[in-house]
């Protein structure tokens, strides 16, 4: 499945109602998000699916692929574009088998070895970080940009940088061969998610042209 990893916006509902979350997703898409990931770490399957269907109705209007974090069953049930898994989730190879060849499987990879294994198992893209400390409730371990660059060179699939990134601090990635940037708080906490997404995307694209 074709997708554009340039601006990957990941949701965080800890400071949103369902209504404001859907609005933030809509505005992120309006601002140029190219992928949306629904991430619900503390939500049961039934509620996760209900929310996923609502979010997908928004992303479908913008023709932006929806990725479901962790839960392959939810991704299948709402016919999302794909799934993203971390080291403690279902293995990439299992996700690929369950989803088939036409869905997106993304994986978190913090080392070259993990990146190569994920690619060999069928991952379509990798998320690598955290580049900076984050304010999300997901436990993060910082990843040096040098490791990020090594991972980019070690696999032929897109690598997206994640972790505390925003329009003001992404210059550290200026010379990195990454395919995109993933953000959470920089858009989801923004007073104007549309403007925030547009600014981040514009900055990233300008940075990659140099």
Describe, in plain words, how this protein is organized in 3D.
With 210 residues, this protein is an alpha/beta fold. It has 8 helices and 8 strands; from the N terminus they run βαβαβαβαβαβαββαα. It has helices spanning 18-30, 45-62, 72-77, 92-99, 112-120, 145-154, 185-188, 193-209, and strands at 7-10, 35-38, 66-69, 82-85, 104-108, 125-129, 159-162, 180-183. Helix 1 packs parallel to helix 2 (45-62) and helix 1 packs parallel to helix 8 (193-209).
Structure characteristics:
single chain, about 210 residues, alpha/beta, eight-stranded parallel beta barrel, 8 helices, about 40% helix
Topology, element by element:
Elements: E1 7-10, H1 18-30, E2 35-38, H2 45-62, E3 66-69, H3 72-77, E4 82-85, H4 92-99, E5 104-108, H5 112-120, E6 125-129, H6 145-154, E7 159-162, E8 180-183, H7 185-188, H8 193-209
Parallel strand pairs: 1-2, 1-8, 2-3, 3-4, 4-5, 5-6, 6-7, 7-8
Helix pairs in contact: 1-2, 1-8
Strand order of the largest sheet: 1-2-3-4-5-6-7-8
Strand pairing plus helix content: what structural class? Answer: alpha/beta
Q: What Rg is obtained from the alpha carbons, in whole angstroms?
A: 16 Å
**Biggest sheet layout:** 8 strands, parallel, barrel
Mean pLDDT figure: 96
Helix percentage? 40-55%
Quantity of strands, as a count? 8
- β-strand amount: 15-25%
Order of helices and strands: EHEHEHEHEHEHEEHH
| Total count of helical runs of at least 4 residues | 8
Shape: globular
In short:
40% of the residues lie in helices and 16% in strands. The protein is of the alpha/beta class.
């Amino acid at each position: 499945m074709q997708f554009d990893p340039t601006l990957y916006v990941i949701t965080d509902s800890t400071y949103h109602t369902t209504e404001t979350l859907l609005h933030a997703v809509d505005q992120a898409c309006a601002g140029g998000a190219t992928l949306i990931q629904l991430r619900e770490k503390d939500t049961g399957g039934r509620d996760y699916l209900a929310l996923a269907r609502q979010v997908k109705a928004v992303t479908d209007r913008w023709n932006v692929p929806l990725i479901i974090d962790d839960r392959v069953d939810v991704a299948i049930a709402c016919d999302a574009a794909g799934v993203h898994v971390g080291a403690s989730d279902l293995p990439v190879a299992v996700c690929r088998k369950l989803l088939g060849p036409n869905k997106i499987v993304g994986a978190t990879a913090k080392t070259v070895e993990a990146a190569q294994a994920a690619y060999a198992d069928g991952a379509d893209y990798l998320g690598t970080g955290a580049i900076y400390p984050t304010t999300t409730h997901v436990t993060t371990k910082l990843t040096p940009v040098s490791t990020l660059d090594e991972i980019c060179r070690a696999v032929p699939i897109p690598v997206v940088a994640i972790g505390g990134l925003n329009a003001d601090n992404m210059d550290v990635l200026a010379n990195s061969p990454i395919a995109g940037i993933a953000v959470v708080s920089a858009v989801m906490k923004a007073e104007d998610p549309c403007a925030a997404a547009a600014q981040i995307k514009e900055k990233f694209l300008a940075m990659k042209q140099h």
